[in-house]
Amino acid sequence: MSRFVLDASVAVAWCFEDETNPTADRALAALGTGAAVVPLVWAAEVGNALIGGERRRRITQDQITQSLDLISRLDITTDIDNATGRLPALLDIARQYRLSLYDSIYLDLAMRERLPLATVDTALGRAAQAVGVALV
């Protein structure tokens, strides 16, 4: 697999010891030879999960630093599509598949780019399968 859309849920699973997941492991392995694309919201979602985990004492500041170091070494590029202009379509996806707007952004990106999606989010995975987006 050369390129795929990387959901924040997968990157977060890499960071928390208690969230190991076969899908997250496959995505990390795929990044050894491939590349991922993420929407603009990705960094904020990952950062929010990390700071929330730190506040709940699930992860230390040092562990966050190590996780971010790992992530920075991976081939992850950010799609700079203007999601504001796509808001009506994103809302339609969110409504139809009962997703958060954030998740609809990942699904929309995978559909637009015709790329597989790496996610550990069950609802997002079901929606991807429903629209014919392959899963990592």
Kindly state the mean pLDDT as a whole number?
95
Q: Spans with pLDDT under 50 lasting ≥5 residues?
A: none
Report the strand count: 4
The largest sheet, given as strand count, sense and whether it forms a barrel, is:
4 strands, parallel
* CATH class type: Alpha Beta
CATH superfamily: 5'-nuclease
CATH topology: Rossmann fold
Tally of individual helices? 7
- Shape descriptor reads globular
What Rg do the Cα atoms give? 14 Å
Instruction: Spell the H/E element sequence.
Output: EHHEHHEHHEH
Fraction of residues in β-strands:
5-15%
Total domain modules:
1
Q: Strands of the biggest beta sheet: in what spatial order?
A: 3-2-1-4
Our measurement of the CA-to-CA distance between the termini, rounded to an integer number of angstroms, reads: 9 Å
CATH architecture: 3-Layer(aba) Sandwich
Provide a descriptive summary of the structure in words:
By secondary structure, this protein is α/β, with parallel strands linked by helices. It has a single domain, classed as Rossmann fold, CATH 3.40.50.1010. It is 57% helix and 11% strand. The chain has a four-stranded parallel sheet, sandwiched between helices.
Defining traits:
Rossmann fold, four-stranded parallel β-sheet, 136 residues, alpha/beta, 7 helices, single chain, 57% helix, globular
Secondary structure blueprint with pairings:
Blueprint: E1 3-6, H1 8-15, H2 22-30, E2 35-39, H3 41-55, H4 61-72, E3 76-79, H5 87-97, H6 101-113, E4 117-118, H7 122-130
Parallel strand pairs: 1-2, 1-4, 2-3
